[in-house]
Amino acid sequence: MSLNIFHIVSSKKWSGIEQYVYDLASELKKEGNYVEIVTTKRENILNRFRPLEIPISILPLRRKADIESPIRFARLIKRGHNVVHVHNVKEARMALIARRISENRNTRVILTCHTVEKAKKGFVHRMIYNDLDKIIFVSELSRNEFMLSFPSLNLSKTCVIHDSVKRDTNMEPEFDIRQRYGIDSRKKLIMFHGRICEEKGISVLLRAITQLDKERFHLVMMGSGEIKYIGFIKAFIIANQLLHNVSFIPYQDHVQPLVAQCDIGVLPSIVREAFGITNIEYMMLGKPHISTNNGAQPEYIDNGVTGLLVPPDDYKALADAIETLLDDDALCAQIGAAAKEQFDTQLDYPHFMERINMAYK
Questions:
Q1: In this structure, how many other beta carbons lie within 10 angstroms of the beta carbon of residue 237?
Q2: Residue 92: helix, strand or coil by DSSP?
Q3: pTM strictly above 0.85
Q4: Helix, coil or strand: residue 285
Q5: Contact assessment for residue 277 and residue 192, using Cβ atoms and an 8 Å cutoff
Q6: pLDDT for the residue 125
Q7: Which residues of the chain have pLDDT under 70?
C-alpha cells in the first residue's frame, strides 16, 4: 500500500529533530513513498530541506489561535492513506484537528517524543495523547518518564525506536584536523562534537582535562554555541594554560569524516539525554568513547565493553576515564571494535527504518 507521509516541522532553527526529519524523509522517498515537509516560512529551515527535492508546504503553525493551519492542512490529507508524523504536542494538536476537518479515516497521526519529560497535564493534552495513533519514544527512559505521569495511556499505543544516524556517503574530509590546528602526532586527539553549552558538560570536560598531562592529548570541540558561553569557556582555557591543548571547529554539515580522525570521543552531558546521537556516531566509526550514565546511554552502551560511562558533573571520574583510554591502546581498539559491532547489528539506519515502517503501517 502506497503511503502519503507528511512531516510537520515548526521549529525556528535547525537542530537534531530537523536532521532526524531530513534523514527519515530521504529514506522514505527512496522507498517509493510520497513524502512532503510541512513547515513555516523560515529560509534557514527551507534551505536545508530543499536539497531533498520533495514537496514543501508552508503554513503559519502559530502557537496560539491558529485556525488557518489545520484548515489548509486538511486539504492535503483529504484523500489517500496518510501518515502525519509530528515532533511536539503543538504539531500533534494541529494535525488532529486537520484530520477531523478532512474526514479522512485513513490518516494516522504519529508523535515522536525526542525528550525525557513527563506527559503534559490538562484535559486538552490528555485528549491529544489519546487521539494519537502511535507515540514513538527514542528510549525506554523517555517512555518510562512519560508513563509515570500518564499511566492510563494504552501502552500498546506506544513504542520505543532508538535513534540512528545515516552513514555519510562521502568520507573524504574537508581538512585534516591535526594539520590545520598544528596538533602533534604524538598526542591523542580527543573530540567533543555537538552543541557547545553547559548542558552538554563542557565545563566538566574542561575541568577534567586540567587533571591530565598536557603532553599527551589535544581536545577538539566541534559545534556551535552562544557567544557568551563560548567566551566564558575560552577565559577558562586561558586561565588554566590550555591554549595549546584545545581547539574549536565551527559547526560542520558533514561531521563524520572529521569524527573519523579522532582517537577518543567524549559526550559528558550533565542533563539526561533522551538518546544521544553523538555517542552512536562514535560507535558507528569504531571510536572508543566516554559518556555519562544519567540518561538513556546505558540502554545501548555496555560500560567497559562498548564505551565508558561516568557519573554526570564529576570531573575527576571523567578525567580518570580519559586517562584510562590514554594509557591503553589495546583497550581503545577493543572498545571501538565492540562499539562498531553493536551499532552495525542493532543501531544502524536500516534497523531504524524497519521499526519506523512498522509504526507507520
A1: 19
A2: helix
A3: yes
A4: coil
A5: no
A6: 94
A7: 1
